[in-house]
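Morning F.,

Quick status update on the modeling queue. The single chain you submitted on Monday has been processed. Sequence for confirmation:
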Amino acid sequence: MPKTKFQDVIFTIMMVILMVYAMICYNIAISMGGLSNKVFLMAFSEMPIMCAIAFVLEFLVVGRVVKHLTFKTIDPTKTQPIFITLMISALTVCFMCPVMSFVASVLFNYSGADKIVSTWLQITVMNFPMAMFWQLCYAGPIVRKIFRTIFKKQLAEDK
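Structure tokens below.
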């Protein structure tokens, strides 16, 4: 896990890119009625705005709330690191998925103020299982592996 502010920024950027890209692909595939090769290219058009929003939300708000809740709930000196990582990952999805689903509802699925809540709830319910699965099984492990490789020397010095 990141130990410095710089490391935290890099880690967050990597995680945001991987999570946002996957979730955009997932939502485009749903709206198109299935996955096709063009989905992977189409997703790039939404990446800049969604990544910027996700980074700001995660780095400035959600990340702080998640860390506070995690370390208020569990004692890091008595808990295995994997459980801390899993709790942070799961809580991040629990907060980010509804927020980013709302952003997507407004930016890409807006069909009137009277439908915004139902659209948002539907998108959140459809996105949540995918976001949790993708985070815990793929994005989280991949980003942590890349992060440990990039910061191998700095992380070793901190131990």
